[in-house]
Specification:
The chain is an alpha+beta fold. The chain is globular and about 55 Å long. Bound molecules: acetyl coenzyme *A. Acetyl coenzyme *A binds next to strand 5, helix 5, strand 6 and helix 6.
């Protein structure tokens, strides 16, 4: 996606609670898992089914996209977020929508196109972007989606790389060509979803494996 280029100028974000800032990725994963068990952190999925509740949530998510992707025309964001072929996975923390991903599942090709992805300014760099992506991967597993493709803004390539996306697209071109929207000045990236991986405990799994290796 090209037009998301620069970030919006935001007022200085409020510093997050100290315990959230200094956490290791493993501690963050454990904290989010606990918050999910406690019901403080949820990841509901919405699409435009015409209900007032879905529309309200989609409009709130759209507002975050508009702020965080200032180069993308607002009408374009609205159109896709509210388009019935698009689905949005929303991150709700303590009753507030703090981010999400809008994607378009192409069921016949077993792939999804990630269209917009953002976290509100005062909740960034606290692991929500990672958790949202891991939740999407779990949703892909549940719905038979084998891979995700996205045109990543060039400044967001590092974020997508950390989420397992690669510039080297393995999926055969005929499988995705014509199914994705084309963007200039953006980088096509792919992430294949492995049904045998529990994406919500990857840090924990890596930690257990590391300890076993050290012991050996
Ligand atoms: N470039 C490189 N690395 C990044 C970036 C970035 N722009 N943003 C986050 N990271 C890193 C973090 O440092 C962190 O690294 P670590 O795991 O080693 O600690 C990792 O990526 C994940 O960070 P999170 O805290 O989980 O991510 P966050 O909640 O901040 O969300 C996001 C990341 C969605 C990119 C957020 O910064 C954002 O909304 N940015 C503005 C909107 C945007 O650029 N969206 C993507 C556009 S492209 C598209 O939508 C298809």
């Amino acid at each position: 996606m090209s037009a998301g280029g620069k970030r919006a100028r935001e007022p200085e974000p409020e510093p997050a609670a100290e315990e959230e800032v200094d956490l290791t990725p493993l501690q963050r994963e454990e904290l989010h898992a606990q918050q999910e068990r406690d019901g403080i952190l949820t990841f509901p999925i919405y699409y435009n089914d015409g209900t007032a509740d879905s529309l309200t949530k989609l409009v709130q998510l759209k507002a975050i996209f508009c702020q965080q992707l200032p180069k993308m025309p607002k009408e374009y964001i609205s159109r896709l977020v509210l388009d019935r072929r698009h689905v949005s996975l929303v991150c709700v923390y303590s009753g507030e929508i703090v981010g999400g991903i809008t994607y378009r599942p192409v069921k016949e090709q077993q792939l999804s196109e990630i269209v917009f992805c953002a976290v509100s300014a005062d909740h960034q760099v606290q692991g929500y972007g990672t958790r949202i992506m891991n939740q999407i991967k779990e949703e892909c597993k549940r719905t038979g989606i084998e891979g995700m493709l996205t045109y990543a803004d060039n400044h967001a390539v590092g974020y997508f790389r950390k989420q397992g996306f690669k510039k080297n697209v393995i999926m055969k071109r005929e499988r995705w060509q014509g199914y994705l929207k084309d963007y200039e000045g953006a980088t096509l990236m792919e992430c294949l979803v492995d049904p045998s991986i529990d994406y919500l405990t990857t840090r924990q799994t890596a930690d257990v494996q590391r300890e076993a290796l050290v012991k050996r």
